[in-house]
Design brief:
By secondary structure, chain A is mainly alpha-helical. Chain A is built from 9 helices and no strands. Helix content of chain A is 79%, strand content 0%.
Chain lengths: 191, 191, 191, 191
DNA sequence: GATGAATGAGTATTCATTCAT
DNA sequence: AATGAATGAATACTCATTCAT
């Protein structure tokens, strides 16, 4: 009996996930340019040719991986999509950032490593900005409403700080005191 | 008659400088793996073959560049070598960080990119840690002396924040308001 | 649908044979170092890249060719694998050498020319010794059992003589009286 | 005081000799293609550019070396030019072969390597044959006078044996017992 | 859908040779 | 005569991508 359309779709999606996971691991390990399509295929247990059935090319593969990560973040902050931010929402936002990191360190470790690569950044520059700017605008508005002197500097500093924390945690999750540091940010920025 | 030894030395040093500057710019622009030796040669106005007269290979070139910059950093923070930090010294430290970044964006861009690449990290891992750990220790001591509740969290947060700022500035130097953000850090952490 | 495993195997074996034959001819004509991979590819009617699908590198190619020849010889002398040699076996051995040469002069002509090249010898030194030493040891034992005064010199001389005959025959098969010379060796060494 | 013309000529000739000796050693060690002009220059203690003042190019250098050696050989066997061979002369001939080999292994190593390369053979083929054929004829006559059944087979076998010995010795001069083997030939063929 | 053979442009690197000084 | 910087063509090898089956 042939598989149902549903089953085929499931197989495809599982396989896509395997390819993406494998690729992310290898991109993190050897760099984007240093990882060949055929080595990913081999490790993922499929043929080279079949890779192109799932992703149109190498660029598509890395973009998909990166955008998947964006989407997770975007989804989490869905609550703020109205463009307005209360103090409580922002505190949630900050805490949630650390929770997401802690919940899946290994994924985000790879994610950061992959994202930092110059050639990768170049590929997703536009999408990255499309994702980042609304968040930044919302933050700036928040600090404006708080009546601080330099709202953009505040917003940029908070963003940069969250980047720095993520990076430090992800590089050395065992030693970086993420909970204390998170509390400290809230204390410094949001009290 | 051949040129004098002095003349040959001058030629070599000038050429080496041109190659390093050009390479750094391109590595920062396109990444290490994404920049070919021949494209550097072309941009530097010399032949591909001559590159190998000045650097034994691509790895030698990137290492030389990284270590050159590393020496600059070590020299700048030499003042803090006593291991004790006053508030004024720390403020100087923070400001100097942004000054160094601004003074040579393209180098620090490359520097960050390189530090993120797993296989390149291994090349200078040891030297990097030898440089970083004393700074962290000194920072922790500073916050201990300030009598804050969680000195390590403060030190880590400040370090992470400087990382995040550096990263954000380096990725988009035209838009990131580094001076305002720097003032804000001083205001938040060191007042 | 992909080809069957059988089909792929057939394709690979045919291609490998074509590449090896072409390479041997060119190595004999222009020397190992003087023959480029891409020129072999062109003459074999395939792309440069495909060469590396069949042989991991140039060294692998020459080694495969040389070891193919060893294996033919080893197989023929399989009968002597017990390490003991009767006079009859040794006579068979000597006669078989000339028979093998006569049966495929053109192959062995190329083979000798390729084998004589210093850079080639260097690459297969170990394998060559692994192949040669057992034969030599067996020969020495034979002459020991015959009670001659200097068994190693006898064994070496017989080996060198067979080399010289092969070389002379292969260089000029039409004029070199291989049968008479073979009979003479048997007469001189094995009576 | 400037050097005399004579002195300049002496210096040139000494330098040419040094270059040739150095080159021969390196060609024998690493093969012709595997030895770079600049490595010869470095080992000979002169600049790369000056090499071209002494030899018009790499081919000129190898040809000069080969023809030099060829002249040595012709000179040594001049004594046998009368076409008649006594047993004592033939024994001297055989012994002299091994003496010449032993006296300059690295040259003969190179010489054999070069003779094996098809395109180089064509350069000196004629001179080589002019030298070899009379020797063969003389040998055949010798065995005729000895009253052996098949004089040509004897002459060919002796020639081939000397070739084989030369080859084996030159390939592995440290282990090949050339003196014992030489004595054995004399014993087998010339007693 | 699936395979892996096949392509060709691209990469780092080497080296004989030239040339300004 | 002497130097070594400079060139550029050539080489081994890689890899994203295509395609016949």
């Amino acid at each position: 009996m042939p598989r149902t359309e549903e089953q085929y779709k499931d197989i495809r999606e599982q396989r896509r996930a395997i390819i993406k996971d494998t690729a992310m691991e290898m991109f993190a390990e050897k760099g984007f340019a240093g990882t060949s399509i055929s080595s990913i295929a081999k490790k993922a247990g499929i043929s080279k040719g079949l890779m192109y059935n799932y992703f149109t090319n190498k660029e598509d593969l890395i973009k998909t991986i990166i955008l998947d990560g964006f989407n997770i973040v975007v989804e989490v902050f869905d609550a703020n999509k109205d463009g307005k931010l209360t103090r409580e929402e922002l505190i949630f936002f900050v805490k949630e950032t650390s929770n997401i990191l802690k919940a899946n360190v290994s994924f985000w470790r790879l994610y950061f490593i992959v994202m930092m690569q110059a050639d990768v950044i170049k590929l997703i520059e536009n999408e990255f900005m499309d994702f980042l700017m609304p968040l930044l605008t919302t933050l700036i508005k928040y600090f404006e409403n708080q009546g601080v002197e330099n709202p953009e500097a505040h917003a940029r500093l908070l963003g940069a700080t969250l980047d720095g924390i993520s990076l430090n945690y992800v590089v050395d999750p065992e030693h970086f005191p993420i909970d204390e540091v998170t509390d400290l940010i809230i204390d410094k920025f949001l009290k």
